[in-house]
Write a structure and sequence with these properties.
This is Aminopeptidase. The protein is an alpha+beta fold. The chain is about 45% helix and about 20% strand. Helix 7 packs across helix 8 and helix 18 runs parallel beside helix 20. The chain binds ligand BES and zinc ion. Ligand BES binds near residues 255, 256, 312 and 315.
């Protein structure tokens, strides 16, 4: 089938009247979707999925229709084209898929309760009501909801409630919007509200399993984020309210439904008195991300999913722009460097990766492009390059024009580039299309050849890669004026090196600030010069050096053994980002050693050498008034000391455990996970296991629950690991939404690897049935690929996954992950001896 069928080409909705009656007791849903719009063709197509359609009328008259499940649609035959009102009666079931209209389960004081909510992006609005479920099919919506309501329950939706009549809740007509952004939820909720300077009512809602003060942090961030965006975008928030709602069962992290943003509980609610700074930052950036979408995504929406980056890349950049403005002391761009930049550079180096702008048609394909490393992290880096080239003033001017031109409508990438070019005079589209339309990124080689300083670009690969001769227009951000601002050629000579070095008075560098999406390979001369002055570099530039070493080593352009002796130079840094990069690199050495071998002992000794002075400096418990850097660095060095099996560290953690036996949850949140994990690993038994599992079940604190999962999955005890795996399929113990983290924990534990691998292979069908409908499913494959590093596991991985190559949404993932493991296996085989010798030399 060559032509692509978008239903919008057959019918263009203007307005929906939607009535939905939901019964939690019987799990029955009955509804009627009345759609006024323009029939372009006599056969019109309306989306539906899992709906039983009982009648279709056009302008009040029954018309013939057929349900076509292959296209997730209803074919309706009309007598004529033109303006028409379709009325579609249907029934469906409330199911536990975390898609469409679905229940969330939770407990308050031992009593089981449920909350009903919705998740429609990308293509699940059609599971809730018949509609043209495509982003371009914008319309206004009148929603009327009835449910088996109990006294005291609350219902929320995109718009305020207009009236309640005979138990039916009627909501105000929405603005013109896409179907995937419709939302509602009801149940026994608690909430807090406030108002922005401009009069928008902002609220945070959650179940009553939470303490009321867990809503406060989010309320403050949400309010100030909206105020920030109204100013930054120069465009008012267009709805009367902005609700943030935490749902106990939630497939994604959070969802930007217009006016009713939904979140995982752990990404919205937190204990203001004892939550790790890292988690506070995550919650703040998640909120800022979803609220950025209220403009970028909701007010102006991508025309089709191929331009998903207009939503996600943009929101992913803006979450950092906003939080940097709201909490400048956090230096949140440093987190961008340690998480997003590193993720993007890693995945984008594998041949077969998709470009940021990517053609997609069917639903499974659409879901599979929400790739955190590409459309999020790489896409955000693209926009950071744009921001760097234009500056905030032209960027804001361009965005304002973009919103004026496309509000309540749709846009493509070119629409954005044109608006930005008009505002700045810079043809950013020309530059950015080289990044958006091509997969991968370049490594810049910088060399002194015959006394001349030369640079050249070539695509960088980890593992086998076919060089397709790709070139990028690269913002170089060099510290030498002789380097062009944007480098689009294959190679260039910048001039006489000695003269340039003399004039600049500092080592030659590219990508200062690490904001462009490329890495640099300096030759011996240039690298030696940089390393001689390494202390003059900013923390981010030191991180960059370590990051590029790591990637070049993964890509076999540098030997890991040559990197090992450099690590010690960074070990005493007081900067979080430097420590993050250092321990990421050190972590990469673990694949070269067999668990509990002599080689691993040497590696542990190296970790001890790197971390011991820092542990001494920082101590185990957070100190009043210490810097954010110290607070965020401590977890890295404690984790390293524990991997090192430093006896003092093991005992210090044990003492903290013993001293807080009665109130483990109130151990300082920044270090709690290490205390618990240490206890489980070295002093654990079945009683401790049972106790932690019970605390996990009874706690509503997302941070504490995650710490317990990390601790329990680290147990060396086979019987306990078996019990954990038995709980994987028991939603009362481990919710499907949290399962991936538990699975990863057991798989990454050498004592649990075989058990977890056996489980996923044996129960793949169960996994597919349970989480197959949502975005998490495909991400189990890279979780496995991150752990495996032996020829035997590579063979098993292939044997299991190759037959699944044709599963919708899995094809690219399986191909790429096979390559990821294969290249790691080859690397380990080739360099193991040299790396272990280098480690031994460093510690002896
Ligand atoms: N629009 C997405 C949520 C989404 C993703 C829905 C995939 C359907 C399919 C939302 O804005 C988002 O990006 N959520 C992130 C968290 C965010 C803060 C990075 C997520 O869910 O991972
Ligand atoms: Zn998003």
């Amino acid at each position: 089938m060559a032509e692509t069928n978008h239903f919008y080409e057959t019918f263009q909705p203007e307005h929906y009247d939607i009535y939905i009656d939901i019964n939690r007791g019987t799990k029955q849903i009955a509804g009627k979707s009345t759609i006024t719009g323009n029939a372009v063709t006599k056969e019109v197509l309306i989306h539906q999925k899992f709906l039983t359609v009982t009648a279709v009328q056009a302008d009040g008259v029954d018309v013939p229709f057929t349900v076509d499940n292959d296209i997730q649609g209803i074919r309706i035959d009309l007598a004529k084209t033109g303006n028409v009102t379709l009325a579609i009666d249907y029934q469906t079931k409330l199911t536990d898929s975390m898609m469409g209209i679905y229940p969330s389960y939770y407990q308050v004081n031992g009593e089981k309760k449920q909350l009903v909510g919705t998740q429609f992006e990308t293509t699940a609005a059609r599971q809730a009501f018949p509609c043209v479920d495509e982003p371009e099919a914008k319309a206004t919506f009148d929603l009327a909801i009835k449910y088996d309501e109990q006294p005291g329950e609350t219902i929320l939706s995109n718009m305020p409630e207009k009236k309640v009549e005979n138990g039916v809740h009627y909501f105000d007509t929405t603005v013109r919007m896409s179907t995937y952004l419709i939302a509602f939820a009801f149940g026994d909720l608690q909430g807090k509200t406030t108002k922005t300077k401009s009069g928008v009512t902002v609220g945070v809602y959650g179940t009553k399993a939470h303490k009321a003060n867990e809503l406060d942090f989010a309320l403050d961030i949400a309010k100030r984020s909206i105020e920030f965006y109204e100013d930054f975008y120069q465009t008012p928030y267009p709805l009367p309210h902005s609700w943030q709602l935490a749902l106990p069962d939630f497939s994604a992290g959070a969802m930007e439904n217009w006016g009713l943003v939904t979140y995982r509980e752990a990404y919205l609610l937190l204990d203001p008195d004892n939550t790790a700074l890292e988690i506070k930052q995550r919650v703040a950036t998640v909120i800022a991300h979803e609220l950025a979408h209220q403009w970028f995504g909701d007010l102006v929406t991508m025309k089709w999913w191929d331009n998903l980056w207009l939503n996600e890349s943009f929101a992913n950049m803006m979450e950092y722009v906003a939080i940097d403005a709201l909490e400048p002391d956090w230096h949140i761009w440093e987190t961008f460097q340690t998480s997003e930049a590193s993720m993007a550079l890693q995945r984008d180096a594998t041949d077969g990766v998709q470009s940021v702008h990517v053609q997609v048609e069917d639903p499974a394909e659409i879901d599979s492009i929400f790739d955190s490393a590409i459309v999020y992290a790489k896409g955000a880096r693209m926009l950071v390059m744009v921001r760097g080239m234009l500056g905030d003033s032209a960027l804001r001017q361009g965005l304002k024009q973009y919103f004026i031109a496309h509000k309540y409508g749709n846009a493509t990438g070119d629409d954005l580039w044109n608006a930005l070019a008009d505002a700045s005079g810079v043809q950013v589209g020309d530059i950015m299309n080289t990044w958006l339309e091509q997969p991968g990124y370049p490594v810049l080689t910088a060399q002194v050849v015959d006394g001349q300083l030369r640079i050249a670009q070539q695509q960088f690969f980890i593992g086998d890669g076919k060089d397709a001769g790709r070139q990028w227009k690269i913002p170089l951000n060099s510290n030498y004026d002789a380097a062009p601002a944007v480098f689009g050629d294959q190679a260039a000579t910048l001039g006489d090196y000695q003269a340039l070095r003399q004039a600049a008075g500092k080592p030659f560098r590219l990508n200062v600030g690490n904001n462009s999406h490329f890495i640099v390979k300096y030759d011996q001369t240039l690298l030696a010069d940089i390393l001689d002055h390494v202390d003059d570099l900013t923390p981010i530039d030191q991180l960059q050096l370590l990051q590029d070493f790591r990637l070049l080593a993964e890509g076999r352009q540098l030997s890991y053994a040559s990197v090992v002796p450099l690590l010690a130079r960074f070990a005493d840094s007081h900067s979080t980002v430097v420590n993050a990069a250092l321990y990421q690199l050190a972590g990469n050495l673990r694949k070269f050693v067999t668990p509990d071998s002599d080689e691993e002992k040497q590696l542990r000794a190296l970790y001890d050498q790197l971390s011991s002075r820092q542990v001494e400096r920082l101590g185990w418990t957070p100190k009043a008034g210490e810097s954010f850097d110290d607070q965020l660095t401590r977890p890295y060095v404690l984790s390293a000391a524990l991997y090192a099996q430093n006896q003092a560290a093991i005992l210090a953690a044990h003492e903290l455990f013993e001293g807080n036996q009665q109130q483990l949850a109130s151990l300082p949140a920044d270090i709690r996970v290490f205390v618990l994990r240490n206890e489980v690993k070295h002093f654990g038994n079945a009683a401790l296991f049972d106790r932690l599992l019970a605390e996990h079940r009874n706690s509503a604190d997302g941070g504490y629950k995650a710490d317990i999962a990390t601790a329990l999955t680290a147990t060396p005890d086979q019987d306990l690991l078996k019990r954990l795996i038995a709980a994987f399929e028991d939603a009362d113990v481990i919710k499907p939404q949290d399962l991936r983290a538990w699975f990863r924990g057991v798989l990454a534990n050498p004592a649990g690897e075989q058990l977890a691998w056996d489980w996923i292979r044996n129960d793949w069908k169960w996994l597919e049935a349970t989480v197959g409908g949502d975005m998490e499913f495909t991400t189990y494959v890279p979780v496995i690929a991150r752990v495996f590093h032996t020829p035997a596991r590579l063979a098993e991985f292939k044997a299991f996954f190759e037959p699944k190559l044709n599963t919708p949404g899995l094809t690219r993932e399986i191909k790429m992950d096979t390559k990821v493991i294969a290249s790691r296996v080859a690397l380990v085989e080739a360099e193991k001896a040299a790396v272990n010798a280098a480690v031994a030399k460093a510690v002896n």
